[in-house]
Structure formats: C-alpha cells, structure tokens
Amino acid sequence: MTALNYPDHITATYYLILAAMLFTIGAVGLLIRKNTLVMFMCVELMLNAANLSFVAYAKALNDISGQVIVFFTLVVAAAEVAIGLAIIIAIFRRRQSVNADDVDLLKG
Amino acid sequence: MDARNLLDLAWLIPALPAFGAVVLLLFGKRIGEPKAGWLATAMITLSFVASVIAFFALRSLSPDQRSNVSQGFTWIQAGTFRVDFRFLVDPLSSTMTLFVTGIGALIHMYAIGYMHGDERFSRFFAYLNLFAASMLVLVLGSSFLLTFLGWEGVGLCSYLLISFWFERNSAAVAGKKAFITNRVGDFGFMLAMFLIFQHLGTLNYSALGSGEHVSAAVSGLSQTTITAIALLLFLGAMGKSAQLPLHIWLPDAMEGPTPVSALIHAATMVTAGVFLLVRANVFFELSNHAGTIVAWLGAITALYAATVALVQNDIKRVLAYSTISQLGYMFLAVGVGAYSAAIFHMITHAFFKALLFLGAGSVIHGMHDEQDMRRMGGLRKFMPITAFTFIFGWLAIAGVFPFAGFWSKDEILAKAWFGHDYGLWLVGAAAALLTAFYMTRQVWLVFYGPERFRDAAFLAGEEHAEIATQVEDAGEPEPAVAAHGAGGVHDGVEPHESPWTMYVPLAILAFLSLVGGFLDLPFVNSKLNVLDRWLQVPEGPVAPHFSTALLLSIVALAIAVTGIWVGIGVYRKGLRADGSDETVERLGGFAGVLENAWYINAAVAWFVSGPATVFARFLSDGVDKRGIDGAVNGIGSVTRAGGGGLRRLQTGLVRNYALGIAFGTVLLLLYVSTRVAF
To answer: In angstroms, rounded to a whole number, what is the distance separating the alpha carbons of residues B256 and B222?
Structure first.
C-alpha cells in the first residue's frame, strides 16, 4: 500500500484548504449566479468540498467513518440531482427560462 | 322501619311537587281544567303527608340526635370544592316543610276555584308546584349551595307567577322588577358563600354548628370575617324577604293572581330570608354588630311599611305592606337573637296572612275583579263566610288575645325589651299600633259600613264617574263590561260568596289563626313553649321576672285594642259623605308621602334612570367600547401591522434565501468559534 501513500510533506491541511476554496467558490457562485443550472453545479461543488474534507480527516485521524459518510453524501447527492434536474426541466418547460429570479411566485 | 331510614326518604318532599310540575308542563293541556288543579293539589298534599311522617320520625329520635343528612350524590366536584346533593332534616327544616306544604296545599286548593276559566289554568298549577318544590329544596338543602338552588328556583317561579297575566304590561313589568330586585340580594348571598368557602373550605351546614355548639372552625374566624358573612347573608335575605330598601318588588307583586300573592307572602319566598338567617345563626351570634344592624333595619321596616299601609286603597296593597311590616318584626327578632321567636312569628304570620290574602282574593272574586276598598263596604251580608274568616285574620294580625299574632308578636317585642333594646321595643310597639289601626280600617271599609259598590257618587276617581255616566246613557247597561272594564258600577251584579274550594281553605286557616299561638306559649318553666324546645335554635334574652313578661303582654294587648278602637271610631260610618278618607284628610300633605310609599320607589327609579344609567353608559361607551374593545382590536391591528412588515422578507427569490442561510451559517460559526476560543 505504500505506493498509494501521499508524500509525507503534503499534510491534511492542504486538502482542507483546497476544500475550503472549493466550498467558497460554490457558495459565492450560488449567491451571484442567476442560472439555476449553474447554481445547481455550485451546490455540487459545495457538497464535494465537504466530501473532500471528510476524506482528509478520515486519513488524518485514521478513522474509517469519515469515508463511510462520503458514500452517504454521494447517494444523497445523486438523488438530489435527479429531483433537482427534473424540477429545472419542469420550470423550463413552463417558462422557457431557467433564471432563478423569474421564479418568485411565493413572494409574500 | 327505623326512623333514620324514613328520614332518608326526605327527598320525596320536594320531589312530589316537582314531579307534578313536570307532568303538568308536559301534559297539562290534555289533563284539562279541574283535573290539572286537583293533580297539583294532590302532589303538594302528598308532600305534606310526607312532611308529617318526617316530623314524627324526627320526633321519635332523642333531642340531641335530631339531625339527619340523607344519602345523596356528589353534585359538584372541583378540586377541594365539593357539594353533595343531600337533604338535611332537623327540627328547623321539618317545621318549615310542615307549614310550606300545609299552607301551600290549602292555597293550591283555593286556586282551583279562583283560577276557574283561565286559559292557562294548567300552566298556573305547574308553576305553583314548581314554586313549592323550589321552596322545599331551599328549606331542606344540606348546604348553602343547595339552599341557593332552591332560592333561585323560588326567584324564577315568582317571576313566572307574578307576570302570569303577562298580557297586562303592568304584570310583566312587576315580574321583571321582582326578579331584578331579588338579584341584588342574591349577589349578597353569593358573596357570603364565597367568603364561607374561602374560610371554612365547605358550604355544608354541618360545618357551622348551631346555638351553643358552634364549630371550632367558625369560632376561630376573625370578627371582621364573621360580620362580613353575616351582613352579606342579610343582604340576600333583604332581597327575598323584602326589607328596606329592597322591598319595592313586593307591593308590585300584587299584579299576580291572588293565590300567588298568598303563596309568596305566607308560605314561600318571603320567609326564605328569615329562614336563611336562622339557619346561619352562628354568624349572627358571634358577630358583635351584625345583630344590631339587622334588628334596627327590621324595626324601621316594620314601622315604615305600617305607615304606608295606612293610606292604601287597594285591598291587596294594604296586605302587601303589612307583610313587609311583619317581616320586619321577624328580622327584629333575629337581630336580638330570638331565632325561635322569628320562626314562631313566621308560622303564625303564614297562617293569618294566607288567610287574609285568600280572603281578599275571595272578596275580589265576589266583587268581579274590584280591588278598590272605597268601592266596597257592607260585604259581610253578601259573603258571610269570607267576612267571618277575614275577621279572624284581622284579630290575629292586630295581636288580640288569644289569636296567633298576639303570642308571636308579643314574644318578639318582649325579647327586645328583655335584651334592653328599649328603642327597638318602642319602634315595634308603634308599628303594632299602626297595624291594628290599618287592619281595622280595611275590615271596616270592606265588610262594614254602607254598601258603596252600587253608588256611583262614591267613586273617587273622575274617570270612573265618566264611564259610569256613559253606561247610564247607553240605556241598557252591560253588566260584564261595567264590572270588568270600568271596575265601577255593578248594576245587576251583586257580590256573591265564593265556591267551597275557596272557603274551605279559609275556614281551616281561620282555625289555625286562632290556635296557632298555642304552639309556643311564653310560660318558660311550664313546658308549654313547645316550639322553643323543639327548634333547638337560640332563644335570645329571657324574662327577668314573670311579672315583667305579663306586664309587657298587657301593654301589647292594650296597644292592639287602642289601634282597633281608634280604627272603629274613625271608620264606623265608612268613608266621609263626600267619599274622602278620614285618615288621608287628617294627615293632610303627609298622606301624599305615604301614598307614594315615602318616595322610595321614585328614589330607586331616579337612581336607576339617573346616576346608574350614566354609569352604565360610561361602562358601555368608555370602558367596554374604548377599553375592552380597544384592547381586543389593538391586539388585532398590531398583529396585522407586524405581519405586513414581516411579509417583505418573503421575497420569493431563491438567492435571497440562500444568502440568509449562508449568513446564518457564518454567524453560527462565529458563535461556535468564540465559545471554543474562550
């Protein structure tokens, strides 16, 4: 298994910083973009950033449960993608648009 | 059967007339005219029989055992508050049931004749039975609340019966007046119950004790509490028993049919207040001042009502004011601690007042609904039985030896004297003098002197004279119209004696008015004071010497005879030649004050339509509309405005919500990091 080992000088911190960067890109993208499809991809980005930090911690703390949770996340994300895409398609069929700001019927 | 088992059947006493009332309310129309009356009479008579059996069962027990609370069920249970539906049979309630049912039965029987031909005949008897049943619950209740149930039932029935002929506006108004005035008293009764429950934790009479055996819980109360309870109970009694200034409903209650007046005045209703005070006598015994207040108010009421009765012309109004006056004596007795004397006078009064009212009803019936005494006179030739029995009632109420009223009234006045309340004695004696006088006036105007009912010249009111001439002009007078419509000229309609269902009760009551006084002869060591020893309630001050008592009796008799002698002297020839009344003329301007009952009615009316209306309007417009409605509407509009502001947050834009979530997460993280750091 030594071949799969990471070089020793690349510690968990690197992975966590990368995860944080990915998460921030996702969050900011979610907030500033209007296109629901892009927003959707941003959400995926955030989810995977979280996955990355789980895996990193699993390695660093030598605890397998972090990797198990990633599998849960993947499954949930897959279901979410299926439903989310279906909603986006339904919206597009009605409005010929996927702009999030156009969908405001629940305005109080 | 064991006596106590028999006493457990006491529930039958109120249940029988209650059953009669239910049957008559449901099937009265089908039962029809004479039978409905006889059914009601049978029920109350059976109730009387049950009362007699209960009396003998109670008497067979030894004196210290004579109190039986029957089995029952839990009526109300809330926390530590618990009221059982049980009936208490003791000497006091047994005595009350005897005369309530006994006199009630006679009045029921009398009403069969009196109400003949009324279109709501069966309804009337349903109410009468319900009235009696309520009164019996009041009397037999084992707790204040059960008594209150009967108390309210009596109030309701009085309303139904006083306004029985509700087609007449005056009757409807009188019924409402009685009900509302009684509510004022009920308010006092309820407050007293709240206080009793607050301090004793129960409303059962058994928790009070009686006479010398006051329970520790009661004697441990503060003087203020005891006096407050006593005076609030007295306020309740003032409403029911028509004491100043809550007496105003009673004269108006004359609007009801005469049997109702007799029932209200003699057996039920007005006696309830006196009964309540006797039942709760421990509070008056322990209170330092309540008794004095009760006694003085009673004495003043006795004198007040007697003065008003002097100048009344309506045959029933005289009796109404005399009832108020006699009730004043009973409160005077309660106030000086002579509870058995109060009950004694209540019983004798029930005899002679029922007699007088039924006699008056017989006169009204025989005179074809004429109630003005100025248009009567010489009736003893036309209705000898009524006249003869009425005279018994007159002698009894005036206090002539050996009639019932002599013994009971004398006992009350004597007790006041023995208690060194000479002022009370003087007021009571003055009222007794006036009583003898106005009753003589009534008897002479109605039964003696010239026959004024044929003579249109004696009609005092001008409107009557006018109608009389109209009838004469018409050539052929119509008796029915003249008698019922104008109430004036009775051409061709002679007064007549009443049917036997009416005069048999009169005869029985006349006998009781004669011998009723022997229930309680004032010879202390002779065992002839039957009622005193039977009732087991405090007797109040005792005579220092027999000679003092004898002297007081002679003085009382002299007062009665003086009143009668003056009365006969004034009214021997009836009214004056011009139709005016000697008493009214002699009193001059003061007669107007008396005719208007010292303007107390007007004062109450002024108060109700003046300050009370202003206050009610203030409560309605100021407090209710602005205050309470304002608060309710304010809560509504604040919620509305708040919602209107908050709805702006709901933009419907997904990215705004996402921003909110992100911002919230950041805040949470900041919070967590500070917690970790420090």
So the answer is: 44
Q: What residue in B sits closest to A31 (Cα-Cα)?
A: B655
Q: What is the DSSP string of A38-50?
A: HHHHHHHHHHHHH
Report the Cα B285 to chain-centroid distance in Å: 24
Cross-chain CB nearest to A31 (options B647, B652, B659)? B659
What is the maximum span of chain A, computed from C-alpha positions, in angstroms? Answer: 60
In chain A, residues with a C-beta closer than 8 Å to the C-beta of B660 are none
Size of the A and B interface in Cβ pairs below 8 Å: 35
Q: Residue B444's closest CA among B343, B569, B622?
A: B569
Closest partner residue to A105 (CB to CB) among B647, B649, B652 is B652
Mutate to test the interface with A, among B646, B653, B657 (most CBs of A within 10 A): B653
Question: What CATH number should be reported for the domain whose range is A35-100?
Answer: 1.10.287.3510
The mean pLDDT values, 10 residues at a time, for chain B of 678 residues are: 78 91 88 86 93 90 81 84 87 90 90 85 91 93 91 91 89 89 90 91 81 75 90 91 86 86 82 90 87 91 90 88 91 90 90 90 84 83 88 90 87 87 90 91 87 62 41 38 40 71 86 84 70 79 80 90 89 77 78 80 82 89 89 94 89 86 92 83
Q: ipTM of the predicted structure?
A: 0.82
Torsion (CA) B669, B675, B676, B678 in degrees, nearest 10: 140
Question: Chain B contacts of A27, Cβ < 8 Å?
Answer: 662
Strand, helix or coil for residue B209:
strand
Q: Is B349 exposed, middle or buried (0-12, 13-18, 19+ CB in 10 A)?
A: buried
- Sequence ranges of the domains in chain A: 35-100
Model pTM greater than 0.80? no
C-alpha B641/C-alpha B630 separation (Å) is: 16
